[in-house]
Write a structure and sequence with these properties.
By secondary structure, the protein is an alpha/beta fold. It folds into 2 domains: 198 residues, Alpha-Beta Complex (Quinone Oxidoreductase, Chain A, domain 1); 135 residues, NAD(P)-binding Rossmann-like Domain (Rossmann fold, 3-Layer(aba) Sandwich), CATH 3.40.50. Strands 3, 5, 6, 7, 8, 15 and 16 form a 7-stranded mixed beta sheet that branches. Helix 9 links the parallel strand 12 and strand 13. The radius of gyration is 20 Å and the shape is globular.
Length: 342
């Protein structure tokens, strides 16, 4: 089969021929129908040698049709259309029992890695899923339109749901970065909170997208952003700030624009660190670095999509075009999310 692999440190991913995998006991093989590209992939490809075993088949956002079942795999049938819940855990600990495999404390020590982030990923013609519990029925949703909900929808949803106590009617939420995750975050905030939503970005095109998907205000992420947010909120600041970038400049905007008793969610993996405490963040403000989301939250995200409350803007590519899509993502010219269709 063909797959998109990161093979050499510092080089672009390549489209290569690899053996078609066979499912082992309890495993499921999917014929991939769609795979999303993410900035996390670029983060993986920026790491030094030894961080991940190479070659690595990329793609942690996956959708497919059940193609083959390993011995003992039950609960799905050949031909079922499914999405892949990618935050794989041990399945036995307290966190996993709640569906929060994204916070499994045993995954690292057991060598359990998500598809595309250690295990072979979805940017291929076939994908092995380790356990049936990591499949979510897609139903009547289109896989190309929906595959990125497994991360670009689930990740902001998880961050927003954990911030709901700070977001009653009359509150203000700021979304910094209106790319793949950010434009979905705007929609989720509009769908499940009463907050006024302010979107920030450096790109006029992305600010236009933010307005199209429901942002009340769309502002440039520049030296005037904090002053503008303070002005809009009557000097109080925003009750919740969702930084989808995670760079030093965006975290500084978050620090200066959050209200007392507010919350900063650092969702993006830009690599910066935000000091918190007296003389840094406002009194009572919390800073959180959420990771992905729970299995039950993914089901809720799909329900929002079925209701028409949220959607992912997508650009479609073939497997052969995947390296080009990564280049465009690095340049910041993708509208929403890039989706590869094998």
């Amino acid at each position: 089969m063909r797959a998109v692999q990161y093979r050499t440190i510092g080089a672009e991913p390549e489209v290569v021929e690899v053996p078609t995998p066979e499912p082992g006991p309890g495993q499921v093989r999917l014929k991939v129908t769609a795979a999303g590209l993410c900035h996390s992939d670029q983060f993986v490809m920026s790491l030094p040698e030894g961080a991940f075993p190479l070659p690595l088949t990329l793609g942690h956002e996956g959708a497919g049709v059940v193609d083959a079942l390993g011995d003992g795999a039950t609960g799905v049938s050949v031909g079922d259309s499914v999405l892949v819940y990618g935050a794989w855990g041990c399945g036995l600990c307290h966190a996993c029992a709640q569906g929060a495999e994204n916070y499994c404390p045993r995954a690292g020590s057991l060598g359990i890695q998500p598809p595309g982030l250690g295990a072979p990923g979805a940017l291929a013609e076939y994908l092995i899923v380790d356990d049936v519990r990591h499949l979510v029925p897609l139903g009547d949703l289109d896989p190309v339109a929906s595959v990125s909900l497994t991360d670009a929808g689930l990740t902001p949803y998880h961050a927003i749901v954990s911030s709901l106590p700070a977001l009653p009617a009359g509150s203000t939420a700021v979304v910094i970065g209106v790319g793949g995750l950010g434009h979905v975050a705007v929609q989720i905030l509009r769908a499940i909170t009463g907050a006024t939503v302010i979107a920030l970005d450096i790109s006029d095109d992305k600010l236009k997208l933010a307005r199209e998907v429901g942002a009340h205000r769309a502002l440039h992420s520049d030296e005037h952003a904090v002053e503008s947010i303070r002005s809009i909120t009557g000097g109080v600041g925003a009750q919740a700030v969702f930084d989808m970038v995670g760079s030093t400049p965006t975290l500084e905007i978050a620090r200066q624009s959050v209200a007392m008793n507010g919350v900063i969610q650092i969702v993006g993996i830009g690599g910066a660190v935000l000091p918190t405490g007296f003389f840094s963040t406002p009194y009572g403000a919390t800073v959180r670095a959420p990771y992905w989301g729970t299995r039950s939250e993914l089901i809720e995200v799909l329900d929002l999509a079925r209701s028409g409350a949220i959607h992912v803007e997508t650009e479609r590519y073939t497997l052969d075009q995947a390296p080009e899509a990564y280049r465009k993502m690095h340049e910041g010219t993708i509208r929403g999310r890039a989706v590869v269709v094998p």
